């Protein structure tokens, strides 16, 4: 399977006249001042920009979860600059990068966090390493590149500065990419890797929703009885339902419950989905 990102977004003419937009997706949490510091840098450098907080509750250092949330969200945001920071390698030799796409810019660490979102925005048209000193904070902390590298770069891009000014060009083929999640067809259905688990405990699989179409109404997920349905209320409270989620992927939920707890799974596990 080449990609699990949602379909590419296309730039829309009206987005260009609504002013600059910046989005933030991080694992910083809300208990400290990290998010506020990033907002402050953006406000000082690009006061006209409007900032959308996608989430700051990505599990710490969970790059795969951050990549999935980012890729499934950016197509629905205004064309702008999308900053993502889930960065366990901050301060190491990993690169900071800026990516151009038909649907906007992406800024963050080169650790696999950005490529799926870039594909969702139409594909990478240019990439640079963020090294130009004049684009960064006067003093760059080794442990807070969100504030000192990524936010300053995003502000300048939002104001119209060309990406090429942020640093030397990077071959997009050299960017770090996450392993392709497991998806295989079986005689009885398919087996797919758990891609993410959302706030409600719904389990999203790395499988396109069309794979459900060839299965009967009664199915089994990891050996448990389930129904192939359209929404949660298609089954009684406490029962499993397999459905096409809002990202166009197969997901499993429990009506009025948490599928992740019932199935006892976590991201990276591979679940079989078969005719019941």
From TrEMBL:
Domain S-adenosyl-l-methionine hydroxide adenosyltransferase C-terminal, residue spans: 192-270
Ranges of residues in domain S-adenosyl-l-methionine hydroxide adenosyltransferase N-terminal: 22-164
InterPro entries given in the database record: SAM_HAT_C, SAM_HAT_N, SAM_OH_AdoTrfase, SAM_OH_AdoTrfase_C_sf, SAM_OH_AdoTrfase_N_sf
Keywords associated with the record: S-adenosyl-L-methionine
Family membership noted in the UniProt record: Belongs to the SAM hydrolase / SAM-dependent halogenase family.
Record protein name field: SAM-dependent chlorinase/fluorinase
